[in-house]
Design a protein that fits this description.
Length: 153
């Protein structure tokens, strides 16, 4: 495993749509391992492959309930009810925004061995899933935020 450099806002890779993972091989599983290590090392709760400069549809998330790894994730269900909440991003470390996200989402994708898996998330997990999937579509939270403030770190 290796810690990868996190791409920062202003790098055009963050505004491009990621490509579908067509085959799961050693490079993909190594990327999953590296992404998880990079996320943990930077005290993040999620990371998308474009954030480490790879335009592939891969995300990792851990909100404190265990690691979720998803290849080619897609939201297949979401609530009409939305919650306004704070979001930050490892690619934009100096900003926090108020973003509306669905209170509930169901996401489908592949795990690291190619099995179809589904995750249901409410509140914080739903927010994290939506945020990371947005990265795969070239969308940053700052584009959806109702307000943005400087992060006081």
């Amino acid at each position: 495993m290796a810690i990868r450099n996190i791409v920062k806002k202003g790098d055009e890779v963050l505004n491009k749509k990621a490509k579908k993972v067509e085959a799961i091989n050693q490079r993909v599983t190594q990327l999953l391992d590296d992404m998880a290590q990079t996320m943990y090392e930077n005290s993040g709760v999620g990371l998308a492959a474009p954030q480490v400069g790879i335009l592939k549809r891969i995300i990792v998330i851990d909100i404190g309930e265990g690691l979720i790894e998803l290849l080619n994730p897609e939201i297949i269900e979401s609530s009409k009810e939305e919650i306004l909440g704070d979001e930050g991003c490892l690619s934009i470390p100096d900003r926090v925004g108020k973003v509306k996200r669905p209170e509930y989402v169901k996401v489908k994708g592949l795990n690291r061995i190619g099995e179809t898996v589904e995750y249901e998330g409410r509140e914080f997990l739903a927010r994290a899933l939506c945020h990371e999937i947005d990265h795969l579509n070239g969308i940053l939270f700052t584009e959806k935020a109702e307000s943005i403030t400087y992060n006081e770190q």
